[in-house]
Amino acid sequence: MASFTRAQGPHLPTDYMRSIEQIDPQIIARTLDEGAGTEHIELLDVLYELMERQLYPHKDELDDDEHTEVAWALEDGAYAVTRIRHDSPLYRALFQRFDGNGRALTDALAPAIIDELSSDLYVLAPSEVLTQQLAAILE
């Protein structure tokens, strides 16, 4: 799919830290530039859904003006996206902490989504910020 860099930090056990992957900002920029023609269409879908949740957290349906706002916010590029793979020890620990309730997990890390295709968790936050949030949740 995309290139990732690993998060670094002392707040979580090493095997959990290896589970946190910040998406390369260049991949995000290229994916957005390419739009619907990108080879990273799954990432494009994730980016749009994350930004929708960031800008309109309590809305299920957006109108045309709101969709335009989402596109503009994505083009600004002033954000970071971090992924936690569904097969990682951290993902399993989080699901256990939230008793298997994916909605409660994404609400705790909002804006966050669980991708329908990959089942990976994506969070609109830099890996350092996410690491701090996760350490507080898992204490």
Q: What's the topology here?
A:
Blueprint (H helix, E strand, L loop, with lengths): L3 E3 L7 H4 L2 E4 L1 H10 L6 H15 L8 H13 L5 E3 L4 H9 L4 H7 L3 E3 L6 E3 L3 H12 L1
Antiparallel strand pairs: 1-2, 2-3, 3-5, 4-5
Helix pairs in contact: 3-4
Overview of this structure, please?
This protein is α+β, with helices and mostly antiparallel strands and 139 residues long. 50% of the residues lie in helices and 12% in strands. The chain has 7 helices and 5 strands, in the order E-H-E-H-H-H-E-H-H-E-E-H. Strands 1-2-3-5-4 form a 5-stranded antiparallel sheet, sandwiched between helices. A hairpin with a 6-residue loop joins strand 4 (112-114) and strand 5. The model is unreliable at 3-10 (pLDDT under 50).
In short:
The chain is an alpha+beta fold. The protein has 7 helices and 5 strands.
Keywords:
139 residues, 50% helix, five-stranded antiparallel beta sheet, single chain, globular, alpha+beta
